[in-house]
TrEMBL record:
Residues 50-135 form the Methyltransferase domain. GO terms for biological process: methylation. GO terms for molecular function: methyltransferase activity. It comes from the Bacteria. It comes from Allobranchiibius huperziae. This is SAM-dependent methyltransferase. InterPro entries: Methyltransf_25, SAM-dependent_MTases_sf. The keyword Membrane does not apply. It holds the Pfam family Methyltransf_25. Keywords: Methyltransferase, S-adenosyl-L-methionine, Transferase.
């Protein structure tokens, strides 16, 4: 362990609206897309009905609608849902979601799979499973294998948002805590988080425990993968 900082649930603080898991709403809405919707679109059949779990301001959900999909977008933040323009909003936590519909594709982005809490990870995946058709594809975004060893304090810009990753602590076994500072004009907001990195073998085991089968890596950076139900 590099420091006495302990792993913990995400928490945010600052001058804008903060979600229950520490995400800055106005700043997230200002972040530009980076082709995430195209990655999801390529992994799904044309016109697939899609469920976006933890959709945020719709950076994936709304472009998927433009690509020909019907998208139901779920978030527990009314502030995030208010930014949706085309997807159908549902105000709910991921874990408690109970919709009557089943979907051809389910998206779990935002590296939610890398929560440090294995029980929460299981609840996320089980929510996905109970909303999948038998032939559905689950598309996941994760921290790439090796991120825990490679990540260092850094500063960069993402569109109009200035970002600083600081206070990086490696706890061992792929577990990392850090603080991400977001700055947009006069808005300055900090988010503390702890992430557990999962390599392909570990991810396959986690998926199997949830009743899923690891399918394939979708991108060269290994951050996007797909899974499906047993067939």
């Amino acid at each position: 362990m590099d420091s006495e900082r302990r792993p913990g649930r995400p928490a945010g603080r600052g001058s804008g609206t903060i979600t229950s898991d520490g995400c800055p709403v106005e700043i997230y809405a200002a972040l530009p897309p980076h082709g995430e919707a195209d990655i999801v679109h390529a992994a799904l059949p044309a016109g697939a009905a899609v469920l976006d779990l933890g959709c945020g301001p719709g950076r994936i959900a709304d472009p998927l609608v433009a690509l020909g999909h019907r998208v139901v977008a779920v978030d527990d933040s009314p502030g995030m849902l208010a930014y949706l323009q085309a997807a159908e909003p549902v105000h709910s936590t991921i874990e408690t979601l109970q919709l009557p519909e089943r979907f051809d594709g389910v998206v779990l982005a935002g590296v939610l799979i890398n929560t440090f809490d294995p029980a929460q990870r299981s609840r996320f995946l089980r929510a996905a499973v109970r909303h999948m058709t038998p032939d559905a594809t689950l598309v996941l975004q994760r921290h790439a294998p090796g991120w825990a060893e490679a990540v260092t304090p850094s500063v960069w810009n993402d569109g109009p948002v200035a970002l600083e990753l600081k206070d990086v602590v490696r706890h061992g076994d792929g577990l990392v805590s850090a603080t991400l500072v977001h700055t947009l004009g006069e808005l300055v907001e900090e988010q503390d988080f702890t992430a557990r990195v999962l390599d392909d073998t570990q991810l396959a085991a986690v998926l199997r425990d949830a009743g899923l089968v690891f399918d394939r890596v979708l991108t060269h950076d290994q951050c996007w993968v797909s899974a499906h139900l047993p067939r």
